[in-house]
Amino acid sequence: MAEMHTPYSSLKKLLCLLHGFLAMSGVILIGLGIYVSFRGAVLTTVLGVFSTHLFHVGYLCLVMGCLTVLLGFAGWYATSKESRGILLFCLVWMVVVLIVEITVATLVLAFLPIVQDAALEHNFVALKRNYRGYNEPDDFSVEWNLVMETGVSTCLFSSRS
Prior knowledge:
It is a single chain. With 161 residues, the chain is mostly helical. It has a domain at 11-111. 85% of the residues lie in helices and 0% in strands. It contains 6 helices and no strands. The protein has helices at residues 7-38, 40-47, 51-81, 84-110, 112-130, 139-158. The protein is elongated, with a radius of gyration of 23 Å. The N and C termini lie far apart (63 Å). This is Tetraspanin 16. It is found in: Membrane. Pfam families: Tetraspanin. It comes from Pipistrellus kuhlii.
């Protein structure tokens, strides 16, 4: 016999789909955390002292991604088995994750001008210390010249019709 299509079954399918998207977003967060945490050699040479804060962000992305994947799969299981207890557990933890994300975003936006000024000053000091000239073969100068050539040419020629 065919499955009945009631509003309840449609809501159940929608909830399974949403928990699948939640698990996929957790996997994306895990990938971002792995990239930031373990590709740090490139970032350390450019950012210097400020790269330690970036590693903390990488580990935060790893933890939040793992938690999001677990909550997504637990919610999907609870929806498919119609377990109210597990659904309530997932709901409470998703509210906790949402509160943490809002708190972190508020702190970042509150201290953004201070961090931008410090990072800009650090970049100027690093550029003055490490840049040797246009035709020098060292890595820092070659990368900075590449950024300036592609960035300036893109800005100059993309605005013309």
